[in-house]
Structures are given as structure tokens and as C-alpha cells.
Amino acid sequence: MFWSSALVLGLTHLCLSTPLTSKRLDTDDLLEKHSWAEVPRGWEWVNKPDPESIIQLRIGLKQDRVDELISSLYEVSTPNHNRYGKHLSKEEVDVLVAPHPDSVEAVESWLLHHGVDPTDATFRSSSGSWISVLVSVSKAEQMLGTEYGLYHHPQSSSYVVRTLSYSLPRELHQAISVVSPTTYFGTLRSMRATSFVEADISDQVADISATVPSSCASRITIACLQALYNTSGYIPSATDSNSLGVVGYLGEYANRNDLQTFLTRYRTDAVGTAFETITVNNGEDDQSEPGVEANLDIQYTVGLSYPTPNIYYSTGGSPPFNPDSETITDTNEPYLDWLNYILANDTIPQTFTTSYGDDEQTVPYDYAVSVCNLFAELGARGSTVFFSSGDSGVGGGDCLMNDGTNTTLFQPAFPASVTAVGGTTGNSPEVGVSFSGGGFSRYFGIPSYQADVVAGYVSSLGSEYSGLYNTSGRAYPDLAAQGTSFSVIVGGQTYSVGGTSASSPTMAGIFTLLNDYRLANNQSSLGFINPLIYANSGGFNDITSGSNPGCDTNGFTAVTGWDPVTGLGTPDFVKLQAIVRA
Ligand SMILES: *[C@@H]1O[C@H](CO)[C@@H](O)[C@H](O)[C@H]1NC(C)=O
Ligand SMILES: *[C@@H]1O[C@H](CO)[C@@H](O)[C@H](O)[C@H]1NC(C)=O
Ligand SMILES: *[C@@H]1O[C@H](CO)[C@@H](O)[C@H](O)[C@H]1NC(C)=O
Ligand SMILES: *[C@@H]1O[C@H](CO)[C@@H](O)[C@H](O)[C@H]1NC(C)=O
Ligand SMILES: *[C@@H]1O[C@H](CO)[C@@H](O)[C@H](O)[C@H]1NC(C)=O
């Protein structure tokens, strides 16, 4: 994602001068790890949870050689480097992210001190850097010097058990990067800006067309995207090894019958093709409840990448309470749980798309860095990971900071920045769509691959918006694709759906074809593409108009070259084929 110098800080090796004593693990030597100045916006305290109820505590240990992981990631992802394309195996990555033995020992002593047997862990990543244990709320409160509360988010009707601050014994700050669930509330939302039922138009748009059908001005279908992005006529052949993963959250189910209806209308040669559904973390697959987001994603990834196998990951929240508890309905640790699940597999899809995100400021910094490092593992292993850039332009609502100051600042999205896809609309020419999320991270510094083009844009802004955004932050989006008026079948009816939720699966479909092209030629998958695309912006149609208003401003404006509305632009598959084979 942001993979930048901020993450490459060498980790100080642990050197515990004296053995940990009970006292030093106890509650009288606690040092704050993270706290919020106020209850996260949109959430309300409900009550104190039953102290005897059980939560699953996920402990992220400091990864001893994570700086080497990041440098390996860059080497295998930078064209012309002698390691380009030589992705790491799961075992090789595990060596780099393993915690120092002193950290493991310190954490295990701490657990034992609190009567938690580390061998009872419900999850332990193969590298040893993540441990999950079941503890009662009162035990967790003791360990973390905190008080948990049950909080309600009326807008999404979700309930979570979280705290406003937590602490760790002083010694353990060197051993532990993050503990959750604690202060990350997770206001995860689907990046679906608009969706409404469309008159059920019976005319069918012809498959596989080289020119953009005129109907694409008002409704986007597979044929429109194939023509716009130049994929018409490409037939994938590496389908025994290549695959595309769609990551779903929030009880969104991808419906199999709706996919067939969609294919019958918009991709007739693919009728009968199926996708696999993998449920993660008690995720479900209720075929009577088709999700707009899930159907949008899977219909467009299958429609563009057919006959490449597609997998839909239905990721459930991990209820932290015993399932018999009636009070808790939703306690997501979405990225952590999905990432730890997928990274445990020896074989992983070469391309992923996720259409969900949060405001960066709602994600505690340590949590964001830990998640970012897990995405770095995926990239190092050869997967290309797309996220929607968000649907609020430079920021939704009043854009007040949550640090107690109430300053108005542009609000960057998280984790929009692995490879972030913004939105466009129209086709002659394509223009940046007003909701396209874009901006500059305040957590992650600017990576070298984009430093030049971003500096160019920032200097063209001059003093405009000065102070509202971070001139030295990781800038996004990286790319863009159509984001309005996608025809999606939901429950047999045609809906018109818009949002960068549509743009990310579109990009994933096209890069799946590019991965196919490389695999079919005995080359590796593309993996983390940012160094490649910034060095080859000629593979994209530069989008030079449109803007992304927000925070009571006009937002940024799309210009020639990179901009924080449409990134480098929209893909031209034919040109990209030449680039990725080089
Ligand atoms: C498709 O690729 C061809 C060959 O590079 C190029 O001439 C044409 O402009 C591209 N069309 C679109 C719509 O991108
Ligand atoms: C690993 O990935 C493969 C291919 O994506 C999938 O079929 C399999 O179910 C996964 N294994 C596990 C344990 O999740
Ligand atoms: C910040 O703004 C919120 C919402 O408008 C308000 O409830 C809160 O009191 C303000 N805090 C400060 C420190 O001004
Ligand atoms: C801008 O980003 C850098 C790099 O992450 C960070 O160190 C700095 O604090 C950020 N500045 C602001 C004003 O947020
Ligand atoms: C790829 O490798 C296989 C097995 O080594 C070989 O049969 C095939 O001809 C190669 N294909 C290309 C395009 O190089």
C-alpha cells in the first residue's frame, strides 16, 4: 500500500536486560498503547458488556525483519531489478515476518501470568507473528488496563465491543505491535455511491465489440468495458493456474442465479460458468439474500475475466462473544481476519479486489501499519491487490479531525492505497467522476515510485488547499475506471449501480487478463504493480478533466498526468500487454 520509508524503520532488536518478572507484567507497570480523544463519530456507548463473556484477543507481535520484507517486496516488484517477478514463497515470507524469539517469550510469559495458556491459542500464524486467544472481558480489561464497552453504530445498525484506550506492560511495547479488538471500531463501508432499480430494459448489448456501443453513455455493461479498455477478443488460457479473488464483508452474498441472468444478457459465451464461494471467519452464503455490492463485484469480475476461475470470499465478523449471546451481532476485524486467513494458504489468487474502506483517521496508526504489512506479504507473494478509492472525493461530511481539535482537514481513505482505483464517467472523453476518492495519507509517507509525478501535481496546486492535505503523504488513487451506471442483476432485477465499488472490480478483471497473458508466456504474475505502472504511465488513458469535491471545497482537479482524482488514468489493455511482457 503505502509501503514507504515510514515502514522501513529498522526495528530495534529486543534486548531484555533482566528476565521479566511478574511485577513487570502486572498492572502497575502499564504504559498506554493507544487512545482516542473522543468516542469515534457515529458510535454510541450502550452499556458495559458482561464481564464473563468471552472475546477473541488477537495479538500482533513485532515482526523482526519486516524491513527486509518491504525491501524484498520492492525488489520483486520493480521492473528491471534482477529479482523482478521472483516472488517469495509462503515459507520465505514467514521467515521475514517472524517475531524475535524474545518477543514470543515475553508475550507468552504475559499470557501465562494472566492464566492464559499460550498453547490454547485459537489461531497462530505460521510465522508466529499473530496469536489469538479466548479470554473473558474482565481478563482482557485486566491485561490491557482498560474498560470495554458495548458500542452501537445506528447508521449501520452494528454493535461492537471496544475500548477508548488500552495499555500494555512497559516491556511489552517492544514485543507487540497491536492488540485487537481494542480501539479500532471499524466503520467499514461498501464503496457503493448509488444504486437504484433500473427499468428492466430488454435490449441486449452485443458481446465482444471493438467499438464503444452508444448505449454505454447511459448504461455500463461488460461490452462497454471491453471496448473502452481494449480487451475485446483476448481469450485467457492460463486458467489452470490464474484466479481472481473478490473479497466481501458485511453479510454481502454473491448470488449464483443472478450471475447466470447477468451472463445471459451481457456475456453470452460465459453462460454456465460458476464462481467458488469461500466463507471466512463464520461468513455466510445466503442465496436468498443477494447483495448489491457482492453481485456487482462478481458479475463484473467474471464477465471481464471469463474463463478465469473467480473466488468470492464471504468474510464474517468474528463474534467476540459466545455465539449463544444475543446481544452482539457484529464485531468485525475485517482486514486482519481475512488477511490472516488468505496468507495461511500456500496458493493464493494472483489478483484481488475489495470495495470496502474506512476513513484513515478512524484506524489507529499501529493497526493500520500492521494491516499494511500483511498486504505487503500478499504483494511479496505475487498478488495484485486493488481497493476502491472511496466515494466521498477529498472527504465526506464536515471533515473534522477526531483528535480533539476539530480541525477541518481532507480525509484520506484506508486502505485505499494498496493499489487504489478511482472512478470515471462518460466515454468521449472519460472524465473523473465527482465522488472519486483521492488525496494524501497522513500515516504513510510518499513512496519513491510516485514521488516525481505527485510532486509535479502538488507544485501545480501552489498554495491552494495548503494545510488541508499532507504534501508528503502517500497519494492516491493510482488508477481509475468507470464508476457510474453499471447494470447489475440483483434478485432477477436490473439495478443501476455506481461508485468506485464498480471501478475496482473492473480493474481487477483487466489485470487478471494481464496476469493471464504473463502466465501463459511462462512469466510470473505481476504482483504489487505500483512500481511498474508509475514507470509505464503510457499504458493508461490519461484523464484530464473532472474533480472530486468534498469537505466544502471543490476538491482536486484532474489534469494531464497523475492527479488525485483519476491517478494515472484508465487502462488500455493492448498497450499494457506490450508493457507487461517486456
Ligand atoms: C486499443 O489499442 C489500439 C492499439 O494499441 C489503439 O490504437 C486504440 O486506440 C486502443 N483503443 C482504445 C479504445 O483504447
Ligand atoms: C487454498 O486456496 C485454494 C485455491 O484458491 C482453495 O481452493 C482452497 O480451498 C484454499 N485452502 C484453504 C485451506 O482455504
Ligand atoms: C467537535 O465537534 C463535535 C461535533 O460537532 C462536537 O460534538 C464536539 O464538542 C467538538 N469538540 C470540540 C473540542 O470542540
Ligand atoms: C504527512 O505524512 C508523513 C509521512 O507519513 C507524516 O510523517 C506526517 O506526520 C504527515 N503530516 C501531517 C501534517 O499529517
Ligand atoms: C512454457 O513452458 C512449457 C513447459 O516448459 C513449454 O512447453 C511451453 O512451450 C512454454 N511456453 C512458452 C510460450 O514459452
UniProtKB/TrEMBL annotation:
<dbReference type="GO" id="GO:0006508">
    <property type="term" value="P:proteolysis"/>
</dbReference>
<feature type="binding site">
    <location>
        <position position="561"/>
    </location>
    <ligand>
        <name>Ca(2+)</name>
    </ligand>
</feature>
<dbReference type="InterPro" id="IPR036852">
    <property type="entry name" value="Peptidase_S8/S53_dom_sf"/>
</dbReference>
<dbReference type="GO" id="GO:0046872">
    <property type="term" value="F:metal ion binding"/>
</dbReference>
<dbReference type="InterPro" id="IPR050819">
    <property type="entry name" value="Tripeptidyl-peptidase_I"/>
</dbReference>
<dbReference type="Pfam" id="PF00082">
    <property type="entry name" value="Peptidase_S8"/>
</dbReference>
<feature type="binding site">
    <location>
        <position position="542"/>
    </location>
    <ligand>
        <name>Ca(2+)</name>
    </ligand>
</feature>
<comment type="function">
    <text>Secreted tripeptidyl-peptidase which degrades proteins at acidic pHs and is involved in virulence.</text>
</comment>
<keyword id="KW-0720">Serine protease</keyword>
<keyword id="KW-0378">Hydrolase</keyword>
<keyword id="KW-0479">Metal-binding</keyword>
<feature type="active site" description="Charge relay system">
    <location>
        <position position="297"/>
    </location>
</feature>
<dbReference type="InterPro" id="IPR015366">
    <property type="entry name" value="S53_propep"/>
</dbReference>
<feature type="active site" description="Charge relay system">
    <location>
        <position position="293"/>
    </location>
</feature>
<dbReference type="GO" id="GO:0005576">
    <property type="term" value="C:extracellular region"/>
</dbReference>
<keyword id="KW-0865">Zymogen</keyword>
<feature type="binding site">
    <location>
        <position position="563"/>
    </location>
    <ligand>
        <name>Ca(2+)</name>
    </ligand>
</feature>
<feature type="signal peptide">
    <location>
        <begin position="1"/>
        <end position="17"/>
    </location>
</feature>
<keyword id="KW-0645">Protease</keyword>
<dbReference type="Pfam" id="PF09286">
    <property type="entry name" value="Pro-kuma_activ"/>
</dbReference>
<dbReference type="InterPro" id="IPR030400">
    <property type="entry name" value="Sedolisin_dom"/>
</dbReference>
<keyword id="KW-0325">Glycoprotein</keyword>
<keyword id="KW-0843">Virulence</keyword>
<keyword id="KW-0964">Secreted</keyword>
<feature type="domain" description="Peptidase S53">
    <location>
        <begin position="219"/>
        <end position="582"/>
    </location>
</feature>
<keyword id="KW-0732">Signal</keyword>
<feature type="active site" description="Charge relay system">
    <location>
        <position position="501"/>
    </location>
</feature>
<dbReference type="GO" id="GO:0008240">
    <property type="term" value="F:tripeptidyl-peptidase activity"/>
</dbReference>
<dbReference type="GO" id="GO:0004252">
    <property type="term" value="F:serine-type endopeptidase activity"/>
</dbReference>
<feature type="binding site">
    <location>
        <position position="543"/>
    </location>
    <ligand>
        <name>Ca(2+)</name>
    </ligand>
</feature>
<dbReference type="InterPro" id="IPR000209">
    <property type="entry name" value="Peptidase_S8/S53_dom"/>
</dbReference>
<dbReference type="InterPro" id="IPR023828">
    <property type="entry name" value="Peptidase_S8_Ser-AS"/>
</dbReference>
<protein>
    <recommendedName>
        <fullName>tripeptidyl-peptidase II</fullName>
        <ecNumber>3.4.14.10</ecNumber>
    </recommendedName>
</protein>
<keyword id="KW-0106">Calcium</keyword>
